[in-house]
Amino acid sequence: MANEGRDRSMREVGSNCSCLNDCLASSIKSVSNNIISILNKSFVDCFLKCSECCKDINYVSEFSKIASVRLMNIYRCESAKHLLSYTKEYVNKLVEAIKQVFHVVITFRVRLVSRLAVHCASHHLPLEISLAWDPVLNVPYIPSSSLRGVVRAFFEANNVVVHGRNLAELFGSTEYSSDIVFFDVYPVECGEEYLIEADVITPHYSEIEGVIDEASSSPTPLIFPVLAPGTELLVVVALKEPLEAGLLNGFVDNIGKALESGLGAKTSVGYGRISVLSKKVEK
């Protein structure tokens, strides 16, 4: 019930600047808009249009709030269906191409069981707390670098060894080329109602030069976009060299465990939790 109340309040969140709200409503109309282009253009256009009437508010924070809620409302499952169909087709074609180059290709189908935040400091979207966004497919995604980091951290924490290869050989370094190749992770199926949801965190104070003043705390809600729970994604990993069956099975199992440890940002507070629905190994 608490989540339902929060979701309803996100859908109905008001604005401290009606000019900015109207400006964004007329700019971000549907999933056919290229979100990166339209948000960056709107950030400038709306500032020029609304700077006078919105001069008493934090423009970046207000823009982020309205844009996040706008993204949630236009990226409903029904509206995003054709985008996800195209994305799934793209990933399937990618897998076929990868099979021509690498010895082993592993595909996991996973489902989010909590909201996903990733690349929160990305400069591609002009938001206070951002989200990794593919400029061509026009959907959020998990960059391969984030996936590599999650798997490497799990292997290191659990002392996972693959056929005597050290972490530098497996994941690459300035001296070694990685034996494991990771690819960007894309959503391919929506959950119940939304592909994107607007979430909120409320910092109570700012830390300045290492000093936190509890007496002058000021709760400041920050609204930002996340991938919604229930979203299904395809995770693709390839091996440059073959592994014998026993070693390969263990490697695949460990990749699955790494994925279930959490993807993206803020995993320590419950974001990015997933369940592995299926896995497919092709040689």
Provide the number of structural domains.
1
Largest sheet: 5 strands, antiparallel
Computed structural class: alpha+beta
What's the number of helices?
A: 8
Approximate helicity band: 25-40%
CATH class: Alpha Beta
Beta-strand percent range: 15-25%
Order of helices and strands: HHHHHEHHEEEEEHE
CATH 2nd-level architecture: 2-Layer Sandwich
What Rg is obtained from the alpha carbons, in whole angstroms? 21 Å
CATH fold naming? Alpha-Beta Plaits
Distance between the termini: 47 Å
- 3D shape: globular
The counted number of beta strands is 7
Average pLDDT over all residues: 87
What are the low-pLDDT stretches, counting only 5+ consecutive residues below 50? 5-12
Describe this structure in words.
The chain has one domain: Alpha-Beta Plaits (2-Layer Sandwich). Helix content is 39%, strand content 16%. The protein is built from eight helices and seven strands. α2 runs antiparallel to α3, α2 crosses α4 and α6 crosses α8. The protein starts with a helix and ends with a strand. With 283 residues, it is of the alpha+beta class. The longest helix has 23 residues.
